[in-house]
């Protein structure tokens, strides 16, 4: 029985080559800065993204936390985020809990962008003790809750100019940054050039078992290193897991476009049916979202997950009532072909 698990790209498992690299990794004490594999990972990440320094962390949530607290060094600082962003919705308000940071949200558009003219109305134009001090604008590329969408280069350029105008920094939650490159038609360095700090996850589509990378300027990374230690992110012989993250960055990133191709194939299949609500043009990366009109989504998901047609297709319902499917390294080949045929068959029977 084949299984096509499309619930999330967090379900990826390390490849055999990754496991071998992990088993043979050279290690040291990373808290002392002496783990050679971690150091190599950080050097590679900084070079790939065009930043001065990089920091390896257990997760991208911790990476975002460290980036924001490293930027908002003064308690009572203020940041601006999209209202559907991962930072706003799924990180427990950690920057407020631990850093006294005020988080103000701006409504996200369908491509993950937001209205900079509206954002400007939230800026305090004077340094007055009544107001928090604005420090950063946070953006998300690709945007999870907007279906893996990718904002345009024009908008990214405007964000950079806006931040420069108001003396703000830009933090990019780039957990799925590599998934965005195909849609934008640019390389990693250019994408990261729009932000002062960037978080990258290695354990989603890049298939490492654990780990996030934060890249930025040397002074910010120095501060983030202190924050990482304070929140329990200091690791000792971390080269064992860093070896997988290094392979993820340097090798797995080169195949990630395949996930977008498979996502678009699924979008084309479900778009054939007039009772399926989907905007194929908004499938920018490895995530597909759609709704069924006049039919039970729960029943459809259950039937996808049964053992008929020789394949179990695992999908789920996410916020907003969307059915979501996410492609990744473990969702490819024959399983994808069989899964798409099953989905098309089930939808045909629902007419």
From TrEMBL:
This is Aromatic amino acid beta-eliminating lyase/threonine aldolase domain-containing protein. Coiled coil: none annotated. Its cofactor is pyridoxal 5'-phosphate. It holds the Pfam family Beta_elim_lyase. GO terms for biological process: glycine biosynthetic process; L-threonine catabolic process. The modification N6-(pyridoxal phosphate)lysine is found at residue 204. Residues 5-290 form the Aromatic amino acid beta-eliminating lyase/threonine aldolase domain. It comes from the Eukaryota. Keywords: Lyase, Pyridoxal phosphate. GO terms for cellular component: cytosol. InterPro entries: ArAA_b-elim_lyase/Thr_aldolase, Low_specificity_L-TA-like, PyrdxlP-dep_Trfase, PyrdxlP-dep_Trfase_major, PyrdxlP-dep_Trfase_small. One of its GO terms (molecular function) is L-allo-threonine aldolase activity. Belongs to the threonine aldolase family. It comes from Oikopleura dioica.
């Amino acid at each position: 029985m084949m299984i096509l698990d499309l619930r999330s790209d967090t379900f990826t498992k390390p490849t055999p080559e990754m496991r071998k690299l992990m088993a043979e990794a050279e290690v040291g004490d990373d808290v002392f800065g002496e783990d050679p594999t971690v150091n190599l990972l950080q050097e590679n990440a900084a070079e790939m993204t065009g930043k001065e320094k990089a920091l390896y962390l257990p997760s991208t949530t911790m990476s975002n936390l460290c980036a924001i607290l490293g930027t908002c060094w003064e308690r009572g600082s203020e940041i601006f985020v999209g209202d559907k962003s991962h930072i706003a919705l799924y990180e427990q308000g950690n920057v407020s809990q631990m850093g006294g940071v005020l988080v103000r949200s701006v409504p996200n558009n369908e491509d993950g962008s937001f209205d900079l003219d509206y954002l400007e109305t939230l800026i305090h134009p004077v340094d007055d003790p009544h107001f928090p001090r604005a420090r950063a604008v946070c953006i998300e590329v690709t945007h999870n809750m907007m279906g893996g969408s990718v904002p345009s280069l024009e908008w990214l350029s405007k964000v950079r100019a806006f931040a420069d105008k108001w003396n703000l920094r830009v933090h990019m939650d780039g957990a799925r940054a590599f998934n965005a490159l195909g849609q934008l038609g640019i390389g990693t360095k250019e994408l990261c050039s729009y932000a002062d700090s960037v978080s990258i996850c290695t354990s989603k589509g890049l298939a490492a078992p654990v780990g996030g990378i934060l890249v930025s300027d040397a002074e910010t990374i120095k501060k983030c290193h202190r924050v990482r230690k304070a929140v329990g992110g200091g690791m000792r012989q971390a080269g064992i897991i860093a070896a997988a993250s290094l392979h993820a960055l340097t090798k797995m990133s080169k195949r990630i476009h395949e996930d977008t191709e498979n996502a678009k194939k699924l979008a084309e299949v479900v778009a054939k049916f007039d009772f399926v609500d989907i905007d194929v043009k908004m499938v920018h990366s490895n995530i597909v979202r759609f709704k069924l009109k006049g039919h039970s989504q729960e029943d459809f998901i259950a039937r996808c997950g049964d053992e008929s047609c020789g394949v179990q297709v695992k999908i789920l319902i996410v916020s907003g009532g969307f059915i979501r499917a996410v492609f990744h390294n473990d969702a490819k080949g024959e399983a994808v072909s069989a899964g798409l045929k099953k989905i098309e068959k089930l939808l045909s029977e629902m007419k």
